[in-house]
Structure prediction request, 259 residues.
Amino acid sequence: MINALATEFLKARRSRVPWVTALAFTVVALVGGLFMFILQDQGRARSLGLLGAKAALVGGDADWPTYLSFLAQATAVGGMVVFGLVEIWVFGREFSQHTAKDLLALPTARVTIVAAKFAVVVGWCLALVVQLLLLGLVIGALLGLPGWSAAAALGGLVRIGGIAVMVALLTTPIAFAASAGRGYLPGVGVLISAVFCAQIVAALGYGQYFPWSVPALFSGLAGPEQSTPGGLGVTLVLLAGVAGAVATGIWWRQADQDR
Prediction:
């Protein structure tokens, strides 16, 4: 397991993909800060060319609760895309780059290889969330946002962390799609379908029954009336995550790798 982890970590470290994902989360924090800057004084934003002369930005006050809520919503939607792409790259690259047979020829159990891949994905996603939280705190402090309190900040950070965990769990079926489909495109197809269906189901009011809609509901993206999907939603997220991980492990263990 140690050797498998070291190998997967080395692959990620020598790739440009981690830098791309880090840039994506940096942009999220900066965009949130830009919205807060505009909300602080829309007249100033117009004079600086950040807002059209007849445009008005609505969506809350320029304070810490609003900013943390924006980061939570961005994690629910953008995190699904970024974390899903991480899963696709980690699992799909072996087939797209024709290294699967070489990997499985090593004296390491296939399930161990899958476990190492998932461990690297979890660490990768955790690092991205920590980066987002730290950047958010720095940007909010530089803007001098009002409404700071230790309790509110802790609640916001825990909320973002919980949403990130749910999103990471929901990407395991994407890893299965990239593996069973032997490449990037099947994983991308499942990712796009999951994001699209999550928005539709949440808009219809049944988001608590569809696991991929649950993180957005917890973030408040669908409105306050659907912000608490309850234990059923969390249970479905856990079941989807476990099912995706188990299915991926079983497929890698049983499937014929002839190319």
Observations:
- The chain has a mean pLDDT of 86.
